[in-house]
Amino acid sequence: MQAWHVHENGEPGEVMRLADVERPTPGDGQVLLKVRAANINFPDALMCRGHYQVRPPLPFTPGVEICGETEDGRRVLANPALPYGGLAEYTVADATAVLPAPEVLDDAEAAALHIGYQTGWFALHRRARLEAGETLLVHAAAGGVGSAAVQLGKAAGATVIGVVGGAGKAAVARELGCDVVVDRRTEDVVAAVKEATGGRGADVIYDPVGGEAYTQSTKVVAFEGRIVVVGFASGSIPSPALNHALVKNYSILGLHWGLYNTRNPKLVLRCHEQLTELAARGAIKPLVSERVPLVGAAGAVQRVADGVTTGRVVVVPGPAEGGAV
């Protein structure tokens, strides 16, 4: 079979190499899966660089999220067991963590449902307790993680403000359903959010960016608001001033979704059931901006690493499903 291998750490476009290898052999409690589609996540790029908290042994295959097919023909979602990632024709996964793929979503859309939407659901509902009628601000609203949070926020009955970088991404955010879109490249984010909220600010802020985005969040969070920190795509990890949180009466919440897989896996299953129901009634649908063949995976991971993509980029082994969309 063909699989992408990383033999040394560095930029994905430089260190990922397509190789002919043997199919992986499932270990105890694992299943072999044929990869139908593999969604690219920012952690794939970080693992290539050696900057992620999980560091699989070299060589490894990137790809932490797939829609796959079991040997008995079931269509499923899974997080591959590294070092056998999903950017390959076959992978392996823990049998207990395999979930049924929603029928209403095609392979590429299903591959993009799990991590981003689970992260958004846990952040907004489990951690921030978002309520209907509240205002949700989403940084990087046109990206893979951000677009999921926008859809989940709208499904929950929130007013959603999306912060993006560039006119193209602003158009995507509007199509996703953002009530207000702020282009950080041409607008003052703090002033725009305050104007949109009548000076009150946002009740919940979803931040996968860190850096300057986090600083802006502290200036526009409402009284008793909640800032949910889910990642640092900017590469800058902020050091919060806790006295500021005290005097403004807001909460700083962290979310490491992966911990739920080991600490409370029943919640992951419950979340998947709710996401499947939301997808079935059309309330959420992963935004797949590109569908690329396996041979194009290295370039696709690099584009995600560079932050130039919108929505999700999904690798489909064999010919691309209809090309880029």
From TrEMBL:
PANTHER family in UniProt: QUINONE OXIDOREDUCTASE-LIKE PROTEIN 2, SHORT-CHAIN DEHYDROGENASE/REDUCTASE
Superkingdom to which the source organism belongs: Bacteria
InterPro entries assigned to the protein according to its UniProt record, in alphabetical order: ADH-like_C, ADH-like_N, ER, GroES-like_sf, NAD(P)-bd_dom_sf, Quin_OxRdtase/zeta-crystal_CS, Zn-ADH-like_protein
CDD domains listed in its UniProt record: QOR1
GO-annotated molecular function: oxidoreductase activity; zinc ion binding
Biological source species: Streptomyces acidicola
Domain Enoyl reductase (ER): from-to ranges: 13-315
The protein's name in its UniProt record: NADPH:quinone oxidoreductase family protein
